[in-house]
Amino acid sequence: MPEVKQHKILLEESELPTRWYNVLHDLPTPPPPVLHPGTGQPVGPEDLAPLFPMALIEQEVSTAQYVDIPPEVLDVYRLWRPSPLFRAHRLEAALQTPARIYYKYEGVSPAGSHKPNTAVPQAYYNKQAGISKLTTETGAGQWGTSLAFACAQYDMECEIWQVRASYDQKPYRKMMIETFGGTVHPSPSDLTEAGRAILAADPDSTGSLGIAISEAVEVAAQDPTVNYALGSVLNHVLLHQTIIGEEALLQLAKVGETPDLLVGCTGGGSNFGGLMFPFLRERWAGRMDPVVRAVEPSACPSLTQGTYAYDFGDTAGMTPLMKMHTLGHDFVPDPIHSGGLRYHGMSPLISHLYETDEIEAVAKQQTECFAAGVLFARTEGIVPAPEPTHALAAAVEEAIRCRETGEDKVILTALCGHGHLDLPAYAAYLEGSVTDTSWDDSELQAAVAQALTRLPQLA
Ligand SMILES: *Cc1c(COP(=O)(O)O)cnc(C)c1O
Fold it and tell me: Which of 32, 67, 145, 393 could lock 323 by a disulfide, CB 3.0 to 4.6 Å apart?
């Protein structure tokens, strides 16, 4: 009789964690403040109040160790949470590695990724504050889908500006957003001043995330019943995502495992922070000592090749200034298939952890990532979103290293979404038309330096 292997490590609904973990409480050194671009002073709650409800502004700056998850949010979470942790036995066998590989799967959510973990509480706190509509931008459409679903839970309207190029090329995300009750406009649109200005200059503009942010922010700022929501980067977003890591800790404890290596992909840093922060807490408390590694695309290498400096969060320069690893707010990455990883900056929290050597980072080429994604699909039966194939490529690399050294390391990776709406990217890879890109270090640094000279002078 073959050995009976346990593939899924599940938690009961009753074991769902009821608090988010706030890493700001335990950071060995505090991160630099977010600055007002006009005054150069730290932003206060009044600066953020036109766009965000006070509960989220408080979470953005809170140093309390835990935040209780409201029962109304837990009730929606329980539609798909706790999410499964899997042991990748079949991937391990294919790699002939003594390493034990685990993956925490967020593809079971309504949007097929981790993003509803923050969309739901953001909609909830806005509803509590009397807001009737949320606006946002979306690129490939993951965030728009998540926010449309979240707004439907609390009977709110959701209006989304989707980058024109994605709107035309990826119709399924738009259909999903509309099915959840959201409204989608291609950006640039003629509904906002920002959009009209772009269209006047270039009627065929294919748009950018920066332009879409400007349109969504403009509409929210003008109407006191409308707020804006952001799907990554900010502290409160990473806070909400820690539900992933809290569950994973309980699940690994059930099988008596302690991780030696944690790997996750980083776009703005939210799925990565969400899995890693609770494990960092355990490390700082001396209960485990895992290496924590961020994996980014070589085509958009904000941690490994970017500059740690104050920069705008958007292309148009409307947001506060955040100290982060940045490629410059006007950086336009080559059109790689991992839409969610094409952001010029990085969460200030993740940037600070990298700067203080609490985490490592590596960059991966997309052909290596797709190869790992295809191997994973064929062994474990899940087609991963292109973004988490970056983390999978790093997990595979480490597992192969273990095969050579004979080490039986425990590797945990974040499988933050499935790729069912990204199949054209796999088709492109399988027919051989996916190519790799790298940036010359000195050219990149010069471009970032140039972009940063256009910032307001800080006091
Ligand atoms: C949005 C997205 C990302 C990138 O965002 P992070 O904030 O870095 O997590 C990665 N993977 C998937 C599946 C996404 O939808």
Answer: 32
Instruction: Give the residue carrying structure tokens 């993003």.
Output: 115
Q: Which helix (H) or strand (E) holds 163?
A: strand 157-163
Letter string b/e over residues 153-168, b meaning 16 or more CB atoms within 10 A of that residue's CB: bbebbbbbbbbbbbbe
Q: Is ligand 1 within 6 A of the CB of residue 269?
A: yes
Q: Whose CA is nearest to atom 5 of ligand 1?
A: 267
The answer to pTM > 0.85 is yes
**97 domain residue, yes or no:** yes
Sheet strands (E) in 192-306: 226-228, 261-265, 291-297
Confidence of residue 458 (pLDDT cuts 50, 70, 90): low
Distances (CA, A) of 206 to 39, 100, 115, 331: 34, 44, 25, 16
Per the CB < 8 A criterion, the answer to whether 388 and 335 are in contact is no
In a domain, 386, yes or no: yes
Establish whether residue 419 lines the binding site of ligand 1, counting it when its CB lies within 6 angstroms of any ligand atom: no
Cα–Cα dist 403/391, whole Å: 19
Please give the structure tokens belonging to residue 278.
């609770």
* Structural domain count of the chain: 1
Asked, for residue 263, whether it belongs to a domain, the answer is yes
17 C-beta closer than 6 A to ligand 1: no
115 lines ligand 1 (CB under 6 A): yes
Name the pLDDT band for 116 (thresholds 50, 70, 90).
very high
Question: How remote is the CA of residue 406 from the centroid of ligand 1, in Å?
Answer: 33
Minimal CA–CA distance to 366: which of 293, 439, 435?
Answer: 435
What is the per-residue pLDDT across 153-200, written as a single tens digit (0 to 9) for each? Answer: 999 999 999 999 889 888 999 999 999 999 999 999 999 998 999 899
> What does R_g of the chain's alpha carbons equal in angstroms?
21
- Is-contact 454 36, C-beta < 8 A? no
| Domain CATH code at residue 272 | 3.40.50.1100
- Domain containing residue 326: 10-15+70-112+236-452
- 239 CA distance to ligand 1 middle (Å): 15
Closest CA to 101 of 390, 426, 325, 398: 398
267 pocket-lining for ligand 1 (C-beta < 6 Å): yes
Region 395-422: mean pLDDT is 97
For 269, left (φ over 0), alpha (ψ -120 to 50), or beta? left
Instruction: Using the mean position of ligand 1's atoms as its centre, give its distance from the Cα of residue 231 in Å.
Output: 9
Rounded to the nearest 5 percent, the helix, strand and coil shares of the chain are: 45, 15, 40
pLDDT digits (tens, 9 = 90+) for 88-112: 999 999 999 999 999 999 999 999 9
Note whether residue 176 is domain-resident: no
